[in-house]
Amino acid sequence: MTREEYKSAIEAILFASGSSVPVSRLAQTLELTENQAGKIADELCKDYEESERGITVIKLDKSYQMVSKKEYAVQIRTAMDLRRNVPLSQAAMEVLAVVAYNQPVTKSFIEQVRGVDCSGVIGSLTTKDLIEEKGRLELPGRPLLYGTTENFLRCFSISSLDELPPLPQKQENPDENALNEDDSQLSIFESENSTNAETENAQDKSGANSDDTITATVGEIIEQATAE
């Protein structure tokens, strides 16, 4: 097969699939290496970007998907009689930001940063397929770990988490990790290992004032990064 034929084959696979297809599956199907399949798929993405078609091919981490262009969302919504999705609340944006920048994280870590109970918001974001369970932490109680999904990348129009804008702390202190003081995951995990749930909740409430400012800033960063 020629390179153009490979691109056509990938195009047909993505169209028929209707959902994202891992580059590993493309490589296996076309009998190519993952590196070769990825390069050809990237070329297909570029071809669509440079054309004036109503559809395009996007990269989602290690997968590719054929989607409609956002410029025609209004027409598509009208034709298919779709209702506009309700925007995420400020609380949901803050929780999503904490997960996106620190994943995988536990529920208690998220609540430590925000200073409030986040059970409802986490459940809502999970239902919307923006975050998902990523396993369990090997500590007493084995708390669940959460991370963002492929749908998160799709909704925020980014190919990977590397495209998230840097946090202010990283810009001001390049040698330090973001949220590396009282909110580092290591300290949270150690706290979970050495204290009971009552003590942990009391610690969560004590850090509410300073942490609210941090999460609000992170929420604004994601909104600015995805603004047209």
CATH homologous superfamily classification of the largest domain: Winged helix-like DNA-binding domain superfamily/Winged helix DNA-binding domain
Q: Compute the number of strand runs.
A: 6
CATH topology name of the largest domain:
Arc Repressor Mutant, subunit A
CATH architecture of the largest domain: Orthogonal Bundle
Counted up, domains total: 2
The CATH top-level class label of the largest domain: Mainly Alpha
Beta-strand residue fraction: 5-15%
User: What is the spatial order of strands in the main beta sheet?
Assistant: 1-3-2
Instruction: Evaluate the radius of gyration.
Output: 21 Å
Described by the principal axes of the CA atoms, the overall outline is globular
Helix content: 55-70%
H/E order of the elements?
HEHHEEHHEHHEEHHHHH
How is the biggest beta sheet arranged?
3 strands, antiparallel
Number of helices: 12
- The averaged pLDDT comes out at 78
Instruction: Extract low-pLDDT stretches.
Output: 170-217
Going by helix content, strand content and strand pairing, the class is mainly alpha
Question: Which key phrases capture this entry?
Answer:
single chain; 228 residues; mainly alpha; Arc Repressor Mutant, subunit A; 2 domains; three-stranded antiparallel beta sheet; 12 helices; 6 strands; 12% strand
